[in-house]
Amino acid sequence: DNRAMAALAIPPHFARDIKHGRGAAVALELNASNLMFANNVLSTYPEITQSFAAAAGQKLIEGLGQPPSQALATAAPVRLNVRILDNPTAAYSSFVLPGLTVNGLLIAIYLVASTLLTAEYAALLRGRQPAWAIIAGKLLPCWLLSVVAFAVSIGLLVACFPVPLRGSVLQLLAVGGAVAVAVAAFGLFVSSLSPNVIVAMQYSAVYVMSSFLCSGYSWPTFAMSDLMRAYAALQPITYAAVTVRDILLLAVAPGLAKNILILLPFGVVFSAAAAAVLALRRRKLPAAPGEGRP
């Protein structure tokens, strides 16, 4: 009924076959519908079986008159010791939660930014403020609140879940601020293109559904096709999620500076593009009765 995640099938004459030196086979059966359980079993069973096989072989050799230490060395001449770094317990919470936190925050930033212009487009287009001032006025508050939300999210992640913070808080804030400005600017660009909120939400669905999957967080980019790798390079989360996880678990992110230098121009380019689209749509807007073109 699929309630068991793993099962070990031991044959009826298992102990007798080992004592008679005939060897024995056991079967490990896994329910891989949830890979979290299957991967944990696959990562731990070799050490367990090796220890049991060495102990059984030691007992057999001791029966031939060898002392215990020599019998163990004969039964298991090579012993494998595993040392797991940075995530010693191989906990999925430490691996998954930083990525999910960053992904959820970026989705929230994008959903907010992608509707900032569409809700009041007519008033903005007929206003006298320059396009760059409108974009800056929308972007700066969104960015500041996003950085605060990022800091609170990481704080809750460390305080409420078993996720360590081994790196620098300033580095976390640097990558958080860079990705926040990139996503907010991209959202404003989408908002500048969208005629209404409904269309903006439709565009959002495409971004939300694919961003985390193609970010390289769980599915590494080197295993992707060239097309998917190129698409991943256009996603801001690609340069943030793994970096945040590395700072939390490894205390250092090798690509930190490079990723920030990619995210900041990303934000500048899309902010300028949003301002250009806004200015273009303003020029094409018919003048209201009684108003003349300057």
Descriptive report:
The protein has helices at residues 14-19, 35-62, 68-75, 92-113, 121-126, 131-160, 169-193, 197-211, 226-233, 241-250, 256-284; strands at 6-9, 27-30. The longest helix is centred in the middle third of the chain and has 30 residues, at 131-160. Residues 288-294 have low confidence and may be disordered. It has a two-stranded antiparallel sheet. The protein is an all-alpha fold and 294 residues long. 64% of the residues lie in helices and 3% in strands. Helix 2 packs across helix 3 (68-75), helix 6 runs antiparallel to helix 11 (256-284) and helix 7 runs antiparallel to helix 10. It is built from eleven helices and two strands.
Radius of gyration: 29 Å
Uncertain segments of ≥5 residues (pLDDT<50)? 288-294
Percentage of β-strand residues = under 5%
The strand count comes to 2
* Oligomeric state of the chains present here: single chain
| Helix/strand order | EHEHHHHHHHHHH
Largest sheet: 2 strands, antiparallel
Q: Estimate the mean pLDDT confidence.
A: 82
Gap between N and C termini, in Å? Answer: 76 Å
Q: What share of residues is helical? A: 55-70%
What's the total helix number?
Answer: 11
Going across the major beta sheet, what is the strand order?
1-2
Structural class: mainly alpha
The coarse overall form would be elongated
